[in-house]
Structure formats: structure tokens, C-alpha cells
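R.M. (postdoc): so does anyone remember the format we settled on? I'll just put the C-alpha cells first.
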């Protein structure tokens, strides 16, 4: 199991002008910098095994502030939706198009499903690399099946030895992963990990309900 805490980047100069950046590489505004500093303080007691972010500047800069001093891995799969010809255009135009472009791509860009597919690929990467030791778990499970003698012997060897039990449990524990990214990848997580439809994800998006919080939790 992997615990994911998802953070959105701070406010950008485009956000303040009601522009939907998409793949336009824009930086944080002064407000966005302050937001990131405040978020750093809000989550100072949380521990993460690894930090990922989109490779776009607004996400990278937010991650560097929030997780100052920690190694940060930028991943192109965590980018915002590519609005194609509409990158950097007015949000009054782009936002209604987002909800209509679930399966149909923006001109020269992506659809929501395209974003979901690359996020699914990223989640598979996490599963293969940060989910405790799933390969060892599967091998052990396979070796135990149908062999009660082995099971009894291992149970006997573990009984009364909490140190061994704790060590084995620790070796199989998943990681706590932090992600700093954008709107569309977060909604894709809602679809992939919380079983929402795209329509539900858009309708319940915190940007509409004004229910921002310092991190959203997901389990892989």
C-alpha cells in the first residue's frame, strides 16, 4: 500500500489574471510564494519518503519551497492538461472546455482521458518502486501456498520474537509519497483511486466548492 498526499501548486501570475496556463510554463506570483511558505509550516510535522512534482515551473518552485532541502523528483507525467492551442488563454474560455473535453482532445492538445492515462502510468511506476516489496510478498505467498509444514515452521520461528515481526512488517510497509501538481492530474486521481466519474470529479472539485486544504489523501 502507498499513501499519497497530493498538493496543488501556489497561485501563479496567470491565475491572478484568470488565464489557464496548461503547458505554458509560468511562475508563482508573490501570493503563490507566500502560500507555499504557509503550506510548509502547516505540514512541518508530516514525514514523506519521496517527493514528486510536475516538471512545470510553478509546481517545481512550490515543491522547492514546501519541501526545502528534500530531494524532489520532477516528472513530466504530472503536468497539467495540455490545452494545445488554448494554453495560456482566458479561463472563461478554457474551463468550460475542460469539462467537455473528457474524451475529445483540445486542438493540438490532450483530453482528460489522456491525462488519466499518464497518471495511471505514473501510479504503476509508484506501485513497482515504492509499494513496500510487492515482488517479495508475492513470492512468499506463492511459496507458502499448499505447504502447511513451511507455514507452521515459519509461524513457530516468529512466535515470541516481536523484533523479528516488526522488522518483517516494516520491510513490507508501503511509502508515504508527496505529489505537487495541478488540477487535471488531481481530478484523474479522483477518477482512478476514488471511483468517481469525470463528471463527479469536476462537480466536486474543491476549486468550485472553495474547500482548499493543505493536502488531499489517496491510497494506492
Amino acid at each position: 500500500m502507498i499513501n499519497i498526499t497530493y498538493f496543488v501548486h501556489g497561485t501563479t501570475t496567470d491565475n491572478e489574471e484568470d488565464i489557464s496556463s496548461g503547458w505554458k510554463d509560468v511562475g508563482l506570483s508573490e501570493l503563490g510564494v507566500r502560500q507555499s511558505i504557509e503550506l510548509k509550516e502547516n505540514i512541518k510535522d508530516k514525514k514523506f519518503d519521496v517527493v514528486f512534482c510536475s516538471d512545470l515551473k510553478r509546481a517545481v518552485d512550490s515543491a522547492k519551497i514546501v519541501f526545502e532541502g528534500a530531494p524532489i523528483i520532477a516528472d513530466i507525467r504530472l503536468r497539467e492538461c495540455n490545452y494545445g492551442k488554448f494554453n495560456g488563454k482566458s479561463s472563461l474560455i478554457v474551463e468550460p472546455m475542460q469539462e467537455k473535453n473528457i474524451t475529445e482532445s483540445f486542438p493540438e492538445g490532450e483530453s482528460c482521458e489522456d491525462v488519466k492515462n499518464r497518471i495511471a502510468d505514473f501510479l504503476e511506476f509508484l506501485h513497482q518502486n515504492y509499494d513496500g516489496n510487492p515482488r517479495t510478498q508475492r513470492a512468499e505467498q506463492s511459496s507458502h501456498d499448499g505447504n502447511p509444514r513451511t507455514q507452521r515452521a515459519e509461524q513457530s520461528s516468529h512466535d515470541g520474537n516481536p523484533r523479528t515481526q516488526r522488522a518483517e512488517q516494516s520491510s513490507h510497509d508501503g511509502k508515504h509519497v508527496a505529489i505537487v501538481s495541478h488540477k487535471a492530474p488531481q481530478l484523474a486521481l479522483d477518477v482512478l483511486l476514488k471511483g468517481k466519474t469525470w463528471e463527479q470529479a469536476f462537480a466536486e472539485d474543491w476549486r468550485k466548492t472553495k474547500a482548499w486544504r493543505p493536502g488531499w489523501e489517496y491510497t494506492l
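R.M.: ...and that's the designed sequence above, right after the C-alpha cells. Also worth knowing: Residues 3-131+171-219 form a domain with the Rossmann fold fold (CATH 3.40.50.1240). DSSP finds eleven helices and seven strands in the chain.
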